[in-house]
Amino acid sequence: MPPKKKGGGKGGTGNIIDGVDTTQMTREQLEVFCHRIKEENEREREERNYFQIERDKIRTFWEITRNELEEARAKLRNKDRQIEESIEKNEDELKFYKQKVKHLQYEHQNNLTECKAEALVSLKLAQDEHSQQERELLKDKRDLKSLMKEQELSHQEQTKALKLQHSEELSKARTEFEHKAKDLEQKYEKKYIELKIQLNAKHDMEISEVEERKNLHVSELTKHHEKVFSEMKNYYNDITLNNLALISSLKDQMEVLRKQNDRMNKQVADLTAENKKLITPLKQAQEDVKEYKRQLQNYEKDKISLANTKATLAQKLKELEDLRWSHDALELRFETLQRERNELHNRFVKAILEVQQKTGVKNMLLQKRIQTLGQVAEHREIIIGELNATLKEPPARSNSKLEEIVSKKNAVISDLQYELARVCKAHDDLLETFEEKLVQFGIPKQELGFTPLRIIPEGQGGLARGPAGLVTQNR
Fold it and tell me: How far apart are CA 421 and CA 459, in angstroms?
């Protein structure tokens, strides 16, 4: 929103200002009047710049909208033209296809009539041909029937003749086979009798040979059995004598064993009594054995746990050594990174100080230049006022010249203020970049050792006065 205009405090029209004629004003009143005019001129310039920017924006939007509207209208006209052309083209094609359909219907009707006529003619010809073929086929059928009857009669006569011939040949073959069978039967009967005689003689000879071999084998077996029987008889006689000697020796051993048994019974009784005495110590010994076994098991467990503990201790010592090595390596890396961080910090601080010094010097020079120009402008305005008073020129002419001079000086001042604001903004942007880098590298602002100075030039506390907002508000 543009700044509101304030009342100028003018008390009249023409040459009367605050109830006093300009020709009768003193130097102090003219200076106050000039300052008031400067302030009003500054406000008017601000409003003019604001409205000019708004006018440019509105004009830009209006031109963009007008161009878009013209493009849309052109597209709409093109679409309408295309629709009309497509409608005309469609109508032409529709007429063409209707005419084509009519021609096709006419041609189809002609073709249909021609086809019907040709079909009737061909049908008539086919019927005549078919009737002629039917008559010929009937005639052929009658001829074939008569021929079949004649062939059937001839076949019957041939069959009868063949049957008679076959019966005669069969009777002849039967008589021949009967004679041959009788001859073969007599022949093989003679062979059978001769073979039977030969086989009987051969069988008798084989039986006699088998009986001779059997008798010889029986005599040999008899001799062998007698020999074996005598050997067995001698063997069992020896066994009997040995058994008698063994029985006598066993009787002696039985007597000895009986005596030993009596002695052993006595020893068993003594041992039983002694065993009863040893039951209590045995129980105590068994309990001691159980306790020793339990202690032995605990000892094995303790031994295993000790071995496991030693292995774990060795592993932990190894891990501790590895951790020490990694700790030393990390410490070295940390020291290296810290040195790099300090170097970067020093470089950033040095760069900021240099930039601040340069911008500070430049700002001081610009401010001094502005002050000098302001003093020169005031001096010139005073001289102009004195000249106007001495020359006694008309007020309107003197006011126009004065306004022209004031506008030129104000333009110079605004340019210098814009340059100052631009430099201050560059300085602030550099500070913001430096702070972002500090955050990126994890360096707190408190470690800088100084507070970055943000330069806000005089008259630039709000929005920048540069054209089109090139210089933004300081944050």
Answer: 9
- pTM score > 0.70 for this model? no
Q: How many CB atoms lie within 10 A of CB 356?
A: 17
Determine contact, residues 17/11, Cβ cutoff 8 Å: yes
How far apart, in whole angstroms, are the C-alpha atoms of residue 115 and residue 78? Answer: 53
DSSP per-residue string spanning 72-127: HHHHHHHHHHHHHHHHHHHHHHHHHHHHHHHHHHHHHHHHHHHHHHHHHHHHHHHH
Cα maximum dimension of the chain: 199
Q: Which two tokens stand for residue 355?
A: 């930039």
Give tens-digit pLDDT for 96-154: 888 888 888 888 888 888 888 888 888 888 888 888 888 888 888 888 888 888 888 88
Q: Which residues of 74-105 are buried (b: 16+ CB within 10 A; e: fewer)?
A: eeeeeeeeeeeeeeeeeeeeeeeeeeeeeeee
Per-residue pLDDT of 349-379, as tens digits, reads 787 777 777 777 777 777 777 777 777 777 7
**Neighbouring C-beta atoms of residue 134, cutoff 10 Å:** 10
CA distances from 294 to 67, 304, 327 (A): 106, 15, 47
Question: Burial letters for 109-122: b for 16+ Cβ neighbours within 10 Å, e otherwise?
Answer: eeeeeeeeeeeeee
Residues in a beta bridge with 17: 20
**Neighbour count for residue 273 (Cβ, 10 Å):** 10
Take residue 110 and report the two structure tokens written for it.
Answer: 């002609």
Torsion 323-327-328-329 (CA) sign: positive
